[in-house]
Amino acid sequence: MESEFISPTQVQDFEDLIDGLLTRNYGLVDHFLPPALVAGLRENLLVHFNSGNMHPAGVGKRFSYQRNLKVRGDLIRWIDNDSKDPWEQLFNERIKSFITYLNQTCYTGINDYEFHYAYYEQGSFYQRHLDQFRVDQGRKFSLVTYLNADWQASDGGQLSLYFEHDEMTIDPQGGRTVFFKSDEIEHEVRLATRPRISIAGWLKHR
Ligand code: OGA
Ligand code: MN
Fold this sequence. Notes:
This protein is α+β, with helices and mostly antiparallel strands. 26% of the residues lie in helices and 28% in strands. The protein is globular. Manganese (II) ion binds at residues 129, 131, 142, 187.
């Protein structure tokens, strides 16, 4: 992936995500995407949802794929890595910049990525899980960006991260981004009492 100009504030966000992951097993920044981009992606997601173009997420991969509402209730839509949508292009550029930075500073060898929109209807959740599939160990890092406007603690829908000795609970505020290792950190999406929207995805090594 080619490197391009990266602004100092972007570098600071990248540093914060990486530093958080290295020092406490997760990175968190509050404005990984500019507000206009969060709004543009939110609009995209809601158009897909309202036109019935989001689909129940399954559990597992290929032949072990199945829908299980007791495990996860989100509706998803994959984002094309070569999308021509202007907001998705900006999002993909941001991800590619981060991958370039990560590879240059941490020798991580990431050479692919995949992201999807996610819509958790009121009352849905995603039970405690790991993001790496047993049959496909390509997912190295998980990165989730929230698109919710004005999220309140009483809306539920927190992301809980489970570490060896403690846990961390994070409100899904719009623009906030969380970063952790896909094969190490078990996590869960708590029941949301209003629709909860995000882009979730993975940095991969093929
Ligand atoms: C996932 C996931 C977390 C979140 O999609 O695998 O764990 O906070 N998402 O949306
Ligand atoms: Mn997950």
